[in-house]
Amino acid sequence: MKLGTGIGWRPEIADAVEALPGIDWVEAVAENLCEDHLPASLTRLRERGVTVVPHGVSLGLGGADRPDPGRLAGLAARAELLGTPLVTEHIAFVRAGGPLSASPVLEAGHLLPVPRTWDALDVLCENVRIAQDSLPVPLALENIAALISWPGEELTEGQFLAELVERTGVRLLIDVANLHTNHVNRGEDPSTALDELPVEAIAYVHVAGGVEKDGVWHDTHAHPVTRPVLDVLKQLRSRVDPPGVLLERDDDFPPAEELAGELTAIRDALASAAAAPPAGRQRPARAPEPAPRAAGARERTGLSQTALLSTLVAGTPAPDGFDRRRLGVQSRALAGKRAEVVAKVAPELPEILGGGYREAFLAYARNRPMSAGYRRDALGFAEHLLVTGRPADEAARRRLTRWWQERAAARPPRRGTRLVHAARTALLGR
């Protein structure tokens, strides 16, 4: 299956994506699409013959729990709606807690790395098989970027991916920006990972931008693609001709001509690597089989992931063996992303609170982990402010009260009702 050159479709750049020359396919975040109808832009792209691949972010296949049937059904429905040749997800966990660890469920709001251990691999493989059985098209999984390393890992990234493919037959979505991120943050050599993983299993490749701050690489998807990332892409191309390559951009969207320039740089990198003599390559032997282990991989994985996530989002003591400074960086990054997403989901909140929104939300997030989705998080934040008598400005507090009441009701108000309220607020100046 040859995909060609693609770009991540986002509503903010939908018009630009439609107008970009040489786009063979696009990828859309699955959770941002309805199960029964498509945005007009994606419909037009499909009518032109552009392939649309749904890219999931919430299954948490690396988590200790088995995949949620409802989430799997939703991803399957989107695949059917799009007529896509495959769907993709991540090798990550996004939530922890619950019955396996006898603790409340915690949501990370972000993709977190699974430990590269035999226990975690056993759990991941079973979860992948469940997902494969539930989906109407093949599944490909993406390697993620990480700020932190697990202590006591038993396999390298390449070995872990190779074992996953060997056991499940799953395809791979290799993100070269994530390989660069793990090089900077965890000292892992991208060349070694590329040598160890089964490149013939690659379904397609992600390329994205980021930025380095204080020796830590942040995979932002909001900055231009850097030369080191393109160099990793060249290394991959010297080993295999990937079926597809896609540019990801999720924020701070540049003008269309800059996106076109990045796509040109990606095409040039692929062409230059393809022109070079192929590197002699013999994949290293598989990792040695582990000694027999006691049953209970899910329980052990659940306890370790819950302990880590509780540190990151609830401020509990750090588990032994972790770099505490890096945990602090990751914790602040999670809180910052949470504030940004809530501002997008509920744009009225930063409008009502003005410049004090971010500081107020980060203070709220320090002691209140997310246990459901971002919309519930926005309601919880507003409720917390109101219970504590904020904001201090009386007119702002009345607006926040009205906003909370409308959305916390058993039946949300119709659009007309919200427009009437908005007009009344504007007329009365409150």
How would you describe what is shown here?
- The chain is an alpha/beta fold and 430 residues long.
- Helix content is 48%, strand content 14%.
- The chain has helices at 14-19, 40-47, 69-82, 118-134, 157-168, 176-186, 190-196, 227-237, 256-275, 297-314, 324-345, 348-353, 357-367, 374-387, 394-408, 415-428, and strands spanning 4-8, 25-29, 51-55, 87-90, 93-98, 103-112, 139-142, 171-175, 202-207, 211-213, 216-218, 244-247.
- The strands form 3 sheets. Strands 3-2-1-12-9-8-7-4 form an 8-stranded parallel beta sheet. The chain has a two-stranded antiparallel sheet with strand order 5-6.
- β2 (25-29), α2 and β3 (51-55) form a beta-alpha-beta unit.
- α4 (118-134) crosses α5 (157-168), α8 crosses α9 and α14 (374-387) crosses α15.
- The radius of gyration is 23 Å and the shape is globular.
Q: What's a quick, concise take on this entry?
A:
By secondary structure, the chain is α/β, with parallel strands linked by helices. Helix content is 48%, strand content 14%.
Number of helices: 16
Calculate the terminal CA-CA distance, rounded to whole Å.
57 Å
Helix content estimate: 40-55%
The fraction of residues assigned to DSSP E strands is: 5-15%
Q: What is the overall silhouette?
A: globular
Query: Mind telling me the C-alpha Rg?
Result: 23 Å
- Tally of strands: 12
| Main β-sheet description | 8 strands, parallel
Unreliable sequence segments:
410-430
* Secondary-structure class: alpha/beta
H/E series: EHEHEHEEEHEHEHHEEEHEHHHHHHHH
Overall mean confidence score, pLDDT? 91
